[in-house]
Every structure is written in C-alpha cells, then in structure tokens.
Amino acid sequence: MKKAIAEISARHLHISPQHLAKLFGPNFKLKKQHKLSQPGEFASKQTLEIIGLKNKLEKVRIVGPVRKKTQIELSLTDCIFLGIRPVLRLSGDVKNSPGVILKGPKGKLKIREGVIIPKRHLHLPEKQAKSWGLKNKQKIKVSFKGPRAAILKEVMVRVGDYKTRVHLDTDEANAIGIKNNATVELSF
Q1: 76-90 tens-digit pLDDT
Q2: Residue 92: which residues within 8 A CB-CB, separation 6 or more?
Q3: ∠ CA 91-93-98 to the nearest 5 degrees?
Q4: Per its UniProt entry, what is the enzyme's top EC class, as one word (predicted)?
Q5: DSSP 8-state class, residue 135
Q6: Can you give the pTM of this predicted structure?
Q7: What single string gives the DSSP state of each residue in 53-112?
Q8: In angstroms, how far is the first alpha carbon of the chain from the final one?
Q9: Residues 170, 60: contact at Cβ < 8 Å?
Q10: How is domain 120-187 classified at the architecture level of CATH?
Q11: CA 158, 160, 163 angle in degrees (round to 5)?
Q12: What are the distances in angstroms from CA 153 to CA 82, 86, 118, 144, 167?
C-alpha cells in the first residue's frame, strides 16, 4: 500500500497580474508570508474580500505567484454562504464557472468566472508516478484511518513538478476528522 501526506486546503485564490494591479495598484508585487509545499508556491501576506450574492468572506489569502487567470478556490460551505451555485473542478478549469466581486485596498472588480470547488487530488512528481504506474488524470482512492475512518474515491492524479501530497478541502477534512499533514493510504 502506497502512502502520502494529506494537506487541507482552506479557501484561497490565485490572481492574474491584471487583477492584482486593479486591486492593489500598478506594479504591485505579492509579498511572501510563507512557502507552501508545492515548488514555487507561497501564501502571500495579501488578502482580499470576496463578495457573493448573499454574503462576503473577508481576508481570503492570495496564493502566489501570479497566474494567467484569476481562480478562487472555495469549499461547498463557502459557496452556500456566499450564495454561489458551486461547480466542482480541477484547478485551472474555470470556464463557465461562477463569478464574484473581489475587493482590495485600491478598488473592486467583478470577475465573470473563476470560482470553483477544487476536486480532491494527488500531486505526484513524474518519476514517482512512473514508478507507481500512475498517469495524469487517473482516478484513485485515498483511505484514512481514525475515529471517522473513510475511503475517498474519485481522487484525481496530477502529475508534474510537484511534491507528493493529497489535497482535500476543509469540508472534506472536517467530515472525516483528518488533520493537516496526516498520512493517508492510496489504492489504485
């Protein structure tokens, strides 16, 4: 049985250079608060307010570096709170997803699409994927032992320049009682 570390991903967003400039001012650069486990990624010191149809979420962390497209990753609970009809997607797939209003220190803007609930997934470096016989976008199962033991199906494999980590959102983690950096078993 193969094992991996599970990381719990709280609400956050990735931002495009254009949206960063509109919300924080021209030539603004994200400031690193701390590194994340995936190469090159970091939690920035910057946060935004996300305004939905019913409510707003304050101090939502921006994950750097900037990306081509702005993408807001929320839990189902967050989407219901905001009044957004959620879509479950792989990171990067924002086409025809809901939009929101983003508010920063220098203004606000309405984005037409970009809100997703990220599908649970396993990040794998290419060498490890090859040795385990796994392919990009293959679906596997993740099991967790504990008082609320569970088997999570439909976990998507993401092969690339990654560290081996399973990513779950806060709703999934809370439902099964798993903590950040817990060890999980993989079956495929």
Answers
A1: 999 999 999 999 999
A2: 69, 71
A3: 105
A4: transferase
A5: -
A6: 0.94
A7: SS-EEEEEEEEES--SS-EEE--HHHHHHHT----EE-TT--TT---EEEEETTEEEEES
A8: 9
A9: no
A10: Beta Barrel (2.40)
A11: 85
A12: 27, 20, 14, 12, 13
**3-class secondary-structure state, position 19:** helix
AA letter at 52 = G
Q: Answer whether 163's CB lies under 8 Å from 4's CB.
A: no
92's tokens: 């990067």
The segment(s) of the chain belonging to CATH 2.40.40 are 120-187
* Each residue's pLDDT tens digit, 90-115: 999 999 999 999 999 999 999 999 99
Cα separations in angstroms, 79 against 31, 56, 57, 175: 27, 10, 10, 17
> Residue 10 — left, alpha, or beta (φ > 0 → left; ψ -120 to 50 → alpha)?
beta
